[in-house]
Amino acid sequence: MAALNLLTDIEGVAVGHATDLLLGSGVTAIVFDEPAIASGSVLGGAPGGRDTALLDPSMSVQAVDAFVLSGGSAFGLDAAGGVQAGLREIGRGFQVGTARVPIVPQAILMDLLNGGDKDWGLHSPYRDMGYEAFKAAGKGRFALGTVGAGTGASTATFKGGIGSASAVTPAGHTVAALMAVNAMGSATIGEGPHFWAAPFERENEFGGLGLPQTFDTRLRLKGRSMIATTIGVIVTDAVLSKAEAHRLSILAHDGLARAVLPAHLPGDGDTIFSAATGTRPLKEPADFIDICHLATLVTARAVARGVYEATALPVPNAQPAWQDRFISPAK
């Protein structure tokens, strides 16, 4: 496990949140010091995104300046404009003649029905929140749980939120994930405190409870309304091609499927972006396999941490958080 067990263990990556607890929503910006080779994959049946098509390995643009994760469903897609504005202020972007166009793919999750005040008037607040998240982006520690894109997130059993985790391969490459957990399914086993991701836990990062003696695999969904989507990013400091970055996002989806039951439903929009900052070359083919393996594990751990660290929204009848029901030995 890397130093902070966070996405910012990757050198050259900054994370910023904009959080509105009364709105019950927020935005998270992941900003790269230098354009990063990037891709991604969408395996949920009801996704929402902006500039996601350019991440296909066959498309011309190779690198991105930032990723954005946001609540607000389709309204939240305004958030990328705020992050673009911040990047443009500092002279970042893809050169097109005399103009620069910041490349900022975005994914959104559905949090419109969580009890927050969504009566925002003519224009949604997400563009301004995107700019706020960009300005707040920094290195080192950042908040987890009910913050940023995870502010209004929920799952079938407990409040969702922002989670992150990192690890280092035998060759020294760092791999880290950040997930906004808003799953239609459940990150926990049955009605108990145990997480599906328990086999991959490091240093009691989500309670250290291990697995239960028996497993309840009955289907649990948060009602029958389509109010889901887990979105996130997986990043490494390795030198990767765009095709290799795409493969990394697929391995991260494996981690999502190990941490949430069920995942990738017709009502989920599960989307994971991937990036390589390119500061540490691969020395042999096995290095990339190690990176892929850890991508699965850190994603699963990040999902569990997102639920473990969340707190309930300050609204009537808010979904309880894991911490509201269980006493964690790590707290």
| First-residue to last-residue Cα separation | 20 Å
Number of domains: 1
Helix content: 10-25%
Give the class from helix and strand content and strand pairing: alpha+beta
- Which regions are unreliable across 5 or more consecutive residues at pLDDT < 50? none
Number of strands: 11
What is the CATH class name?
A: Alpha Beta
Give the DSSP E fraction (strand runs of 2 or more residues).
Answer: 15-25%
- Principal-axes shape call: globular
The CATH architecture can be given as: 4-Layer Sandwich
Helical run tally: 5
The CATH superfamily appears as L-amino peptidase D-ALA esterase/amidase
- Sheet with most strands: 9 strands, mixed
What integer is the average pLDDT? 94
Looking at the structure, the CATH topology is: L-amino peptidase D-ALA esterase/amidase
Rg from Cα: 18 Å
The arrangement of helices and strands along the chain is EEEEHEEEHEEEHEHH
Write structural notes for this entry.
The chain is an alpha+beta fold and about 325 residues long. It has a single domain, classed as L-amino peptidase D-ALA esterase/amidase (4-Layer Sandwich), CATH 3.60.70. About 20% of the residues lie in helices and about 25% in strands. The strands form 2 sheets. Strands 1, 2, 3, 4, 7, 8, 9, 10 and 11 form a 9-stranded mixed beta sheet that branches. A two-stranded antiparallel ribbon has the order 5-6. The longest helix is centred in the C-terminal third of the chain and has 24 residues. The protein is globular, with a radius of gyration of 18 Å. The two termini are about 20 Å apart. The mean pLDDT is about 95.
